[in-house]
Amino acid sequence: MGSFDPFTGPIPTVVHLHGAEDSSLFDGAPEAWFTPDGRHGKGYSTLIATDPNAAVYEYPNGQQAATLWFHDHALGITRLNVFSGLAAFYFIRDQYDTGRSDNPLRLPAGPQEIELMIQDRQFDTNGQLLFPDSPANPSLVDGAPGNPGLHPFWIPEFFGDVICVNGRSWPYLNVEPRRYRFHIVNSSNSRFYRMGLADSKNGAQGPPLWQIGTDGGLLDRPVQLPGLVEPFATHPTPTTRLFLAPSERADIILDFTGASGRRLTLTNDAQVPFPSGNPLHPSDPTRSVMELRVNLPLSSSDTTYNPASGAPLRGGQNQEPIIVRLADPVAGQLAPRVQPSNTRQLVLFEFESPAGQPVEDLINNTKWRGIRDRAGNPPDTRVPGSKQDTFGQGIWMTELPRVGSTEVWEFLNLTVDAHPIHIHLIQFQLINRQPVTIDAYTAAWASQFPGGQFFGYTDNPDGSVTWGVVNYPLGVIIPGYGPPHDYLKPNADGALGGNPAFSPFLSGPVHTIKVFPGFVNRFVVRWAPQATLVGGVQPGQNLFPFDPTKGPGYVLHCHILDHEDNEMMRPYLPVP
């Protein structure tokens, strides 16, 4: 176990371009960090020789136009580096969405195209950023770290009491009575947002938000989000509000025509944590994000694209082709002619202390290194079905899809949180989700664990909890053991992953809306450029302008940064 003393050395960092199709050599692998004094992680790489405290990356920028962002991704401290400010926008432009005022799509541009980076933060009485790391510096929302004998500086989720946009607390923006385009990213550590517009004076409903794009670029047509006041809900339900989990982006148009003199507040009603938290109190300051003041004179006539017309954004002359659909969002099934090579069934699991405090969040019950920790006696072993990385990082990978292949990944969420899963290199599409009898599956899953001596926490006579060697009995979940069976041996559903089949525990109809805990969430994933047509690539065929099978590898992880930093992240690498 590492030291419990505060770290006093140079801060590691590495940049990840979130949403990019790039080589893993330049993807910002967690082990690719470097420091101001020139130390390097085992995954470090640079395009050309440079100073030891630097790296040179190469981005192809060949994707269709999209709103990306870049942020730190250093192993174990991403939450701290992003909280400290290491995050920014990165726009991919193309010949259609050029960012110029004469763009073929007639989208608002120049002063009418604005980025909004939304974050919640906490400050001390001197106005400095304050991250809760001890009883002396508790979170104003969740208190101090709940397991000081296990993780003295870690809290399960950070929630601040101040909403910042582009680094300013509750700012305002003066606008003209015309259409504006906003690129929005939720770069909060853990907070979800459900947003709409309301009149600042009387709370009356404001103009609708027109969503024209998501993480992967422009939509085929705009979607109207009225932003209605909605009842509190802890179960999946459609929403009229702009709903963004950490790391998600939205491209929207707001039309202020006819709103001269009005002040409009961008409001938020998402509980923390989401969805298990209590409703926000009416006086909670995080219910407000920012204010839009329609007090500037109209500088010129507005001839930009009007989303209320419903005119297409893709598929026409001087437009990108329509989105390649790997899933049928209406039927909740794979699109015609999509043929997956494999199905993987992965379990999201949270390991708790006796007091009910989260200790670790795990993907498929597997830690970052892919090792079953026996504290060295007997020797540690790898998770069966895994392969060691070839870059010398000392990590074992279980997800090794073939480049060019298509797979179905099913995530069964046993936790109380909604987890925004991010898979580097590719975009993936939701097929459907289906409720599960969680208690029954958890019991069946636990029954498959063989028992044995592994590293875990120990209850002490004084009531404290510390790390130590634990003798787990048969039929008890062993945190960090990995799945109970060999990852590569298909289960009764024919799925890889090493877990009991999900199908006997499905308890309700298929749905196709937002991912929540207590559900199997099915995604279709393809290792090819996003614009590749269905049937346009075969397993083993590489259509990227680089070799994705080389380098330190990519990762899949929860984008609640406090989870990512505490084991809810796994490396993966496409194979030839």
Give an overview in words.
GO terms for molecular function: copper ion binding; oxidoreductase activity. Belongs to the multicopper oxidase family. With 576 residues, the chain is mainly β. It has three domains: 1-92, Sandwich (Immunoglobulin-like); 95-122 and 160-309, Immunoglobulin-like (Sandwich); 327-450 and 478-569, Cupredoxins -  blue copper proteins (Immunoglobulin-like). Helices cover 3% and strands 30% of the residues. Strands 6-5-4-8-13-10-11 form a seven-stranded mixed β-sheet, with no helix packed on it. Strands 7-15-14-9-12 form a five-stranded mixed β-sheet, with no helix packed on it. The protein has a five-stranded mixed β-sheet with strand order 19-18-24-29-26, with no helix packed on it. The longest helix has 9 residues, at 438-446. The mean pLDDT is 94.
Offer a quick outline of the entry:
The protein has 576 residues and is mainly β. The chain is built from three helices and 31 strands.
Structural class: mainly beta
Number of helices: 3
How large is the radius of gyration?
24 Å
What is the fold-level CATH name, i.e. the topology of the largest domain?
Immunoglobulin-like
Oligomer: single chain
CATH class of the largest domain: Mainly Beta
Say how many strands there are.
31
The largest β sheet comes out as:
7 strands, mixed
Terminal residue distance? 37 Å
Strand order of the largest sheet: 6-5-4-8-13-10-11
Q: Averaging pLDDT over every residue, what do you get?
A: 94
Unreliable spans are none
> How many domains make up the 3D coordinates?
3
Helicity range: under 10%
Beta-strand residue fraction: 25-35%
Do you know the CATH architecture of the largest domain? Answer: Sandwich
CATH superfamily of the largest domain: Cupredoxins -  blue copper proteins
Instruction: Describe the global form.
Output: globular
